[in-house]
Amino acid sequence: MTTVVLVTGANSGIGLALCERLLSQDVDGLQLCLACRNMRRAQAARCALLTSFPTAQVALLQLDTSSVSSVISAAREVKVRYNRLDYLYLNAGIMPNPQFDVKAFFKGLFSSNVITMFATGEGILTQKDDVTSEGLREVFATNLFGHFLLIRELEPLLCHEALTSQVIWTSSSNAHRSAFNLEDIQHFRGNQPYSSSKYASDLLSLALNTRYNKQGLYSSVICPGFVMTSLTYSVLPAFPALLWTLLMPLLWFIRFFTNTFTLTPYNGAEALMWLFGQSPESLDPKVKYHSLTSGLGNNYTQARKMDIDLETSEALYAKLLQLESDLKMKLEEKQI
Ligand SMILES: NC(=O)C1=CN([C@@H]2O[C@H](COP(=O)(O)OP(=O)(O)OC[C@H]3O[C@@H](n4cnc5c(N)ncnc54)[C@H](OP(=O)(O)O)[C@@H]3O)[C@@H](O)[C@H]2O)C=CC1
Ligand SMILES: CC(C)CCC[C@@H](C)[C@H]1CC[C@H]2C3=C(CC[C@]12C)[C@@]1(C)CCC(=O)[C@@H](C)[C@@H]1CC3
Fold first, then answer.
1. Domain for residue 242, yes or no?
2. In terms of pTM, does the model score above 0.80?
3. Is the CB of residue 229 less than 8 Å from the CB of residue 278?
4. What is the ipTM of this complex?
5. Spacing, Cα 233 to ligand 2 middle (Å)
6. What is the pLDDT of residues 233-254, one digit of tens each?
7. Which spans are transmembrane here (predicted)?
8. CATH of the domain at 161
9. 314 in helix, strand or coil?
C-alpha cells in the first residue's frame, strides 16, 4: 500500500523542499499530490522533482486556498483520484505588503528582547491586507479558511476506521494571541493579519483534535523558523536577492544565538519531516513543533507549548462552521 500525501503551496519554498525530502526518503512508497495556485510554477516543480526522482508518482492539483469555489472543486477532484489521504500538509501561505518598522528593529537590537525579535519578528512587522472577490480577508482566506474548508470537504478521505491520517499546518512563531480577536476572526480591524491567521491555525488544530481524533484524524502545527523564501524576501523589497546572499555570513552568525534561523527551505522542512515519521497518537495537541538549526548547522525538532486554550478553540471552530455555511449558501444562490 502506498502513502498518499497532499501538500498545499508545494511549488516553492518550504512546501517544495518538503516534497524533495519526502521523495528522497521513500520514492516508491509515495503518491505525492502538489496542490498549487500557480500551475506554471507547479509544472516546473513537478519537472524538477521528476528529474531528481524519475520513478516518483507526482500529481498536480489546481488549488487556490483563498477561493471557496476553487477549494470545493479541488476537493471534488481529490475524491475522484484517491480513496484515502494519509497526510495533508497545509502549507500554502501569504504575508502580503509587509511593513518593516526600521526604528523598532534598531530599538529592539539594543534591548533584552533582541532574541525574541529575531525568532518571532514580534513588534517589527505589520501587513496591509486585501479582500477577495468572495468578500473574505485575503490572509485569513489563504492561510486559514481555505484549509479549514479543504479538511471539511476531504473528511471522507481523512477519516477511516482502523487507519489514522495526519493534518499538518505550517504555522509560525509569529502567531500571537494579542493579534487575534474572536470578535474579528478575519482581522478586518488590525494590522497583523498574518499573526492573527497563524494564531487561528494553532487554535483550529486543537479544535480538530477534539473533534476528529476518535475518527482517526490528528492535527499538528509546526514552525519552520526563519527561512529565506519569496515570503521573507518581500519583507525588505529594497534588498535584492544578491544582498541577502551577501548577508548570509551575518545570518549564520546570528544562528549561534537563535537556532530559529533555519534559513534554507530544506532546514525549515525539518519538523514537517519529523512529524511524517511519528505515530500521531503520541503527539501533544497543545504543542508546536519547531524546526531548529544549531550554530554548527545540525537540524532538529523541538516541541514547545502553545499559548492556546480549549474554550477559545471551540469558539473559533463554531465561527468557522457558521462562515462556511453562509458562504456555501451564497455560492448555491449564485449558481441557481
Ligand atoms: N519563510 C519563513 O520564514 C516562514 C514561513 N512560514 C510559512 O511557511 C509556509 C510556506 O511559505 P514559504 O515557503 O516561506 O513561502 P513561499 O512564498 O515560497 O511559498 C508559499 C506557497 O504558498 C502558495 N500560495 C500562496 N497563496 C496561495 C493560494 N491562495 N492558494 C494556493 N497556494 C498559495 C504559493 O504559491 P504561488 O506560486 O501560487 O504563489 C507558494 O507555493 C507559509 O504558510 C508561511 O506562512 C512560517 C514561518 C516562517
Ligand atoms: C540582519 C538581517 C538583515 C536582519 C533581517 C531583519 C528582518 C527582516 C528579519 C529578522 C527576523 C525575521 C523574521 C521574519 C521576517 C524577517 C525578519 C523580521 C518572520 C516574521 C517571517 C514570517 C514568520 O512566520 C516568522 C516566523 C519570521 C520570524 C523572523
1. no
2. yes
3. no
4. 0.98
5. 9
6. 999 888 888 888 899 999 999 9
7. 241-258
8. 3.40.50.720
9. helix
